[in-house]
Amino acid sequence: MYRSTENGGREMGNEMNENLKICQSCGMPMQEEQYGTNGDGSRNEAYCCYCFKEGDFAQKCTMEEMVDFCVPFEMEGGRAKTKEEAKAMLMAYFPTLERWKTEAQGS
Fold first, then answer.
1. What's the number of domains the chain is made of?
2. How far apart are CA 15 and CA 57, in angstroms?
3. pLDDT tens-digit profile of 58-82?
């Protein structure tokens, strides 16, 4: 399950890795090789390689569009049985991620 960290980030606790970082855009648990990259080529530990490349977001989208994109992954992973259940879970979770905090507060 996801939990908050001391520095305000989110981590996923599991038996294999208690400090697995969570992408602050899509919520994906990340291994080191899945970290995004900054403009200078250094790794960005806040976002995954699918969401953040070369210092910019790969997808220019709203939070709801990202939720819709992630729904099938929640179902494939067995975390939700229906699209509606997956969307409701993600709509509740995504506003806690750094990328979407400002958008969520503005709505």
1. 1
2. 31
3. 999 999 999 999 999 999 999 999 9
